[in-house]
């Protein structure tokens, strides 16, 4: 029969004591973890903290993202969104429920996009694409504007609204393009190329390329290499106005000027016009003032010279004598010139009759035809050389692709706890959680046994 001694409470825990020990144990065992899942039951009370459930197909866990950390987010989480969280495990003692306390959150895939952003930025910067010396001088009076953006988005409405409020006339030509999606980068680059071709005909003063705000994925078309190169090679001074003030894209660095928003780009055009006209009016006023002063000065000099001028009648008599003399000399000169021209014309007519111009024209035509053939052949040889260099470059890039090694069956293994890549078996031990990166996908594994090189050889010999 079980007997309970009420007076002896050694080894008995209270509920709160049990929860305290569980909390200490979890927080010590799992200081930081990366968790991926789908958001559900998302709510934001007056405190500003985010409370939600992170789930996958088989399980779920409660999560809290305190206001001190979530205020730095560049996006607002919502139910159904896949996210990647860095978090600490903890226990909410009053209810005895374990939860994760989120420190960092990003949409699934944003990490890879950020790596791609930094890699392209480093590459183009190394080529000098962002060098300030490549930037074109912006116009003083941008009255003719070329706009490359979505034909129905918020950006074009904001820019046109600002320009319509300008007291000075502004002409706008719009190249409507897709600003997000798989084809957006090609449409933007093609529009910039078309603007280059048509710029001499339309004489655009400035080109604005951009779109309204959005997530990193939404703005990604402006982080593509083809768009960055198209912006850099644009013959028209180019302003990049992508997203909100906190957004920064590769196109912003390649452009001649970066504006934080499309609205700010339109305001820049208006301010530039206002400054130009203000300076124009100021210069006009200075010119008028200077001209008036000069006229007054000349008036004073005229008054002083009135007493020094020769009588007009005497001056006219002298001029008549001079004119008669010049007329006589002019007549003689004209007769002599006509005689020389007549002799020269007779000589040229004789030479023209002696030499047949049709024969020279025929010989020149044959020479032009021969030179045209040589020029065509030379151009073909140059194009063949460029084509061979391009194909060799593609082959070398394919050979240097790090993913080619993984496709041959190799993999990369790193600890989940600290993300360190494992190169030796003594860097891990039984029970450690590791991530195995394959050519396609990843595997989360638990180490059952770690064998060194010597142990492996002994096992093979035995």
Characterization of this structure:
With 462 residues, the chain is of the alpha/beta class. Helices cover 49% and strands 18% of the residues. The chain has twelve helices and 13 strands. The strands form three sheets. Strands 1-2-3-5-4 form a five-stranded mixed barrel.
For the largest beta-sheet, the strand count, sense and barrel status come to:
5 strands, mixed, barrel
Remind me, CATH topology of the domain at 132-275?
Rossmann fold
Order of helices and strands: HEEEHEEHEHEHEHEHEHHHHEEEH
Distance between the termini: 56 Å
Main-sheet strand order equals: 1-2-3-5-4
Q: What's the tally of helices?
A: 12
- What is the helix fraction of residues, given as a range? 40-55%
Uncertain runs: 1-8
* Structural class based on helices, strands and sheet pairing: alpha/beta
Which architecture of the domain at 132-275 does the CATH hierarchy give at level 2?
A: 3-Layer(aba) Sandwich
Short description:
With 462 residues, the chain is of the alpha/beta class. The chain has helices at residues 15-29, 67-70, 110-126, 154-164, 184-202, 225-232, 250-254, 262-305, 312-354, 357-400, 402-407, 453-461; strands at residues 33-43, 50-55, 60-65, 82-92, 97-107, 144-149, 171-176, 206-211, 238-242, 257-259, 412-415, 433-437, 442-446. Among the domains are: 15-108, OB fold (Dihydrolipoamide Acetyltransferase, E2P) (Beta Barrel), CATH 2.40.50; 132-275, 3-Layer(aba) Sandwich (Rossmann fold); 407-455, no CATH class.
């Amino acid at each position: 029969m079980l007997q309970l001694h009420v007076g002896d409470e050694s080894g008995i825990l209270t509920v709160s004591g049990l929860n305290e020990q569980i909390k200490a144990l979890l927080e010590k065992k799992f200081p930081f973890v990366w968790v991926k899942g789908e958001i559900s039951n998302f709510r934001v009370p007056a405190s500003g903290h985010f409370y939600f459930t992170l789930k996958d197909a088989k399980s779920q866990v409660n999560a809290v993202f305190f206001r001190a950390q979530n205020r730095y987010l560049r996006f607002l989480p919502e139910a159904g969104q896949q996210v990647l969280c860095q978090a600490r495990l903890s226990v909410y003692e009053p209810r005895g429920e374990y939860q994760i306390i989120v420190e960092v959150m990003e949409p699934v895939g944003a990490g890879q996009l950020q790596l791609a952003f930094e890699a392209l930025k480093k590459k183009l910067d190394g080529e000098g694409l962002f060098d300030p010396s490549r930037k074109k001088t912006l116009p003083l009076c941008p009255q003719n504007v070329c706009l490359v953006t979505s034909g129905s988005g918020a950006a074009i409405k904001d820019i046109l609204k600002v320009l319509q409020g300008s007291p000075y006339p502004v002409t706008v030509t719009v190249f409507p393009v897709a600003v997000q999606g798989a084809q957006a980068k090609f449409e933007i680059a093609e529009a910039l190329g078309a603007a280059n071709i048509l710029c001499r005909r339309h004489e655009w003063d400035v080109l604005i390329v951009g779109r309204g705000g959005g997530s990193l994925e939404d703005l990604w078309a402006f982080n593509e290499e083809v768009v960055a190169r198209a912006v850099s090679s644009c013959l028209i001074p180019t302003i990049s106005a992508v997203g909100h003030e906190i957004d920064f894209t590769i196109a912003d660095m390649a452009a001649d000027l970066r504006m934080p928003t499309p609205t700010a780009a339109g305001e820049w055009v208006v301010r530039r016009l206002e400054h130009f006209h203000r300076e124009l009016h100021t210069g006009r006023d200075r010119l008028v003032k200077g001209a008036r002063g000069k006229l007054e000065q000349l008036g004073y000099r005229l008054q002083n010279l009135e007493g020094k001028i020769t009588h007009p009648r005497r001056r006219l008599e002298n001029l008549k004598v001079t004119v008669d003399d010049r007329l006589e000399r002019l007549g003689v000169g004209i007769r002599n010139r006509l005689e020389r021209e007549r002799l020269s014309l007779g000589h040229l007519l004789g030479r023209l009759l002696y030499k047949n111009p049709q024969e020279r024209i025929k010989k020149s035509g044959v020479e032009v035809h021969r030179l045209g053939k040589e020029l065509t052949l030379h151009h073909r040889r140059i194009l063949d050389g460029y084509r061979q260099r391009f194909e060799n470059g593609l082959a070398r890039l394919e050979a240097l692709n790090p993913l080619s090694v993984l496709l041959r069956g190799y993999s990369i293994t790193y600890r989940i706890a600290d993300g360190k890549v494992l190169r030796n078996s003594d860097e891990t031990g039984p029970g450690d959680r590791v991530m195995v990166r394959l050519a396609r996908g990843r595997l989360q594994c638990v180490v059952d046994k770690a064998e060194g090189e010597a142990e492996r050889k002994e096992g093979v010999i035995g």
